[in-house]
Amino acid sequence: MIKNYINGEWVSSSGKDSVDIVNPATGEVLEKCPLSTKNDVDNAVEAAKNSFKAWRETPPTVRVQHMFKLKTLMDEHAEELARLVTVENGKTLVEARGSVGRAIQMVETACGIPTLMMGKVLEDIASGIDCHAVRRPMGVFAAITPFNFPAMVPFWFWPYAVAAGNTFVLKPSERVPLTQMKVFELIEKAGFPKGVMNMVHGAKETVDSLCTHPDIVGVSFVGSTPVAKHVYTLGTSHGKRVQALGGAKNFMVVLPDAVMDQAVKTALDSIIGCAGERCLAGSVILSVTEATYKEVSEKIVRYAKDTSVGNGLDKNTQMGPLISQGAKDRVSKLIQSAVDEGAKILVDGRIGLEGMKGYFLKPTVLSGITKNMKIAKEEVFGPVVCLTKVENLDEAIEWINTNDYANTTTLFTSSGAAARKFSYEVTPSMIGINIGVPAPMAFFSFGGAKDSFFGDVKVHGTACMEFFTDTKVTVERWVKNSSIW
Predict the structure, then answer these.
(1) Which residues of 462-482 are buried (b: 16+ CB within 10 A; e: fewer)?
(2) What is the pLDDT of residue 482?
(3) CB 159 within 8 A of CB 220
(4) Residue 355 burial class via C-beta count within 10 angstroms: exposed 0-12, middle 13-18, buried 19 and up
(5) Calculated CA dihedral for residues 5, 6, 11, 13, nearest 10 degrees
(6) In this model, does residue 485 exceed pLDDT 60?
(7) Among 376, 345, 377, which Cα is nearest to 361's?
(8) What are the tens digits of pLDDT across the range 66-120?
(9) Known catalytic residues?
(10) Tell me: the pLDDT tens digits for 306-357?
């Protein structure tokens, strides 16, 4: 049975229930994850609270030494971590390695906390009066992270929070806890003091306990929009800072002047990479003009049929399984709803799966998508390409801006003027120009808008310092001819 990590110790959960951790490529049960209780959360928060004062008083140059050690350890164990990601999540090894690399990049960026936390000083804001502002850690923070990136997403939060002098409680997805179990072994090996980092496994009771605990000052979340809304509403109603990243519906636009082979391959990878289970995945390809639509459709069909689907540990596999049978069923129903509403199936990924034990769908290609179809409005979170034609760039932008989500969007073009217009007018917060997955690096902020993000401060980069610290401002009058002049 998987254990919690509280106050530097591996401890059993007090919960009586558990869920199976299943390899989605084989259906094999790997372990059981406990569903922890409010009591487990209380113990973790108490440990974090008790360790805060000493950790907060530790100089940031000393705090980051643990980060440097962790970075080295993660480099050494990167392949082991990637294989764990593949086994419990289903990604290909190439995708898993990339996600571990991004996690390491977050740690590297957090090592710059002495600079990221620097304040401001101004002399003589009035006669004989100076003012200075400093950033100070606040206490215990928590993060609730999803199944789709077991290695990467937790690192969007805790390295910055902890390097800044806060303490932390992490709740990874109960579907994929194995990667973080290994990460916490490395955290322990890196010498973080007891109570600074804690981990509690569980489901809704654990989530709600974190969102309502009086000693937690802030909560970070990544997951579906309904749960993001729940976490944001519950957490803020209990006086907490909350940043909650929800779902997405990401449109990609292809102009006639795009480098077509590159554009189509990039668009397809955006949609089917990680089996479509990522919030930056493309979903609907809007081709401008009939000729572009025809060319994109023909190439997409050819490339989709050539995609190798299987176990991510196989080096020849280009796309792995979905996370569960429930996820597969939901995506299959969305495909059928599109057909029922008039879409045409060019490639049906629901067939040809005989003999495959895991939760597999092959890439599916649908044409004739209209704006009011369910599949054109809802997040798919699966390897489904939706094709449609628009008359011009303005119509494409209108499609994008009227959707309830606003996470990311991409334009494929050779025109600087079109790229400028697109970037200026679309509502999503993360924009790609000839890039299908415009994921910001660790030193830039990450997060969407509208129903894709709930909160005020985006994650990682310099922006997150606003979330994980409080700015203290001191105004000082210097008295002449005194000991303080």
Answers:
(1) ebbbebbbeeeeeeeeeeeee
(2) 58
(3) no
(4) exposed
(5) -90
(6) no
(7) 345
(8) 999 999 999 999 999 999 999 999 999 999 999 999 999 999 999 999 999 999 9
(9) 279
(10) 999 999 999 999 999 999 999 999 999 999 999 999 999 999 999 999 989 9
Q: What is the DSSP letter of 68?
A: H
Using a 10 angstrom Cβ sphere, with 0-12 exposed, 13-18 middle and 19 or more buried, the burial of residue 394 is exposed
| pLDDT tens digits for range 163-215 | 999 999 999 999 999 999 999 999 999 999 999 999 999 999 999 999 999 99
Residues 6 or more apart whose CB falls under 8 angstroms from that of 407 comprise 247, 248, 249, 250, 279, 280, 428, 429, 430, 448, 449, 452, 453
- Widest CA span of the chain, in angstroms? 89
Amino acid at position 181, single letter: M
Q: Any alpha helices (H) in 306-387, and if so which ranges?
A: 325-340, 374-377
| Residues counted in the chain | 485
Q: What letter represents residue 446's amino acid?
A: F
Q: In what order do the strands lie in the sheet with 344-347?
A: 344-347, 364-367, 384-390, 282-288, 250-254, 408-412, 430-433
**Which amino acid belongs to residue 8?**
G
User: In the structure encoding, which two tokens stand for residue 237, read together?
Assistant: 């109603």
